[in-house]
Design brief:
By secondary structure, the chain is mainly alpha-helical. It folds into 2 domains: 39 residues; 38 residues, no CATH class. 65% of the residues lie in helices and 0% in strands.
Length: 92
């Protein structure tokens, strides 16, 4: 069973809109446009993370504590370097 917070409300709303309008599909289209607009606005409001160290950022506490040993070990590992260098090659 899907949790309501994970998107199961949209199909239920679509069925309710279709039934309420006698089988018309245009209300579902408007709902889809509205939800897409909300998603687009959220995308515009989100900060850019292209040049952010996600491994190091995840290990820092809100008070600015030092990077954890696990995060430092992963960042320094050859697997992480290979992963990041292959991403850089792919993006250039």
């Amino acid at each position: 069973m899907t949790d309501r917070r994970s998107g199961s409300g949209a199909p239920l709303a679509a069925v309710a809109l279709t039934e309420a309008t006698g089988g018309a599909g245009w209300p579902v289209g408007l709902m889809t446009i509205g939800l897409s607009a909300i998603t687009f606005l959220a995308l515009l409001a989100a900060p850019e993370t292209r040049h952010v160290d996600m491994v190091g950022a995840a290990s820092h506490k809100a008070d600015g504590a030092e990077e954890s040993d696990a995060a430092r070990s992963y960042r320094d590992s050859s697997a992480a370097r290979e992963c990041f260098s292959s991403e850089l090659r792919a993006s250039s």
